[in-house]
Amino acid sequence: MSGFYGTMDVSFDDTTKGINGLVAYHYALKDPNNPNSGFQIDPNNPGPKGGPVGRVGYMPAFSTNKSVFGYRGSHKIAGSETEFIYQIETQPSITASPASTLRSISSPMW
Length: 110
Prior knowledge:
Largest sheet: 3 strands, antiparallel
Radius of gyration: 29 Å
Helix content: under 10%
Strand order of the largest sheet: 1-6-7
Order of helices and strands: EEEEEEE
Shape: elongated
Distance between the termini: 40 Å
Number of strands: 7
Oligomer: single chain
Structural class: mainly beta
């Protein structure tokens, strides 16, 4: 199969936002009359608040990094020493999904 070439680069990634287990606190200026005084935990509201909302832990994912497939070749032009050189290439998105959620067969795709 002369002329065909390509690479397939797919990886499994495990990413996080790095905020799992953190909590929020109210902050206030040390001196309300001086904006350059710095910040401290608000003495009038010192307790911790709720943590972050959503998926903040590790999230698995597949990704197509640099996959490429193609075909290249040449064709001799009759009656001359000139060759026509051609190449066609594509970058397939191997790990792309057609929808953001799973759908049942009976539901429409639009």
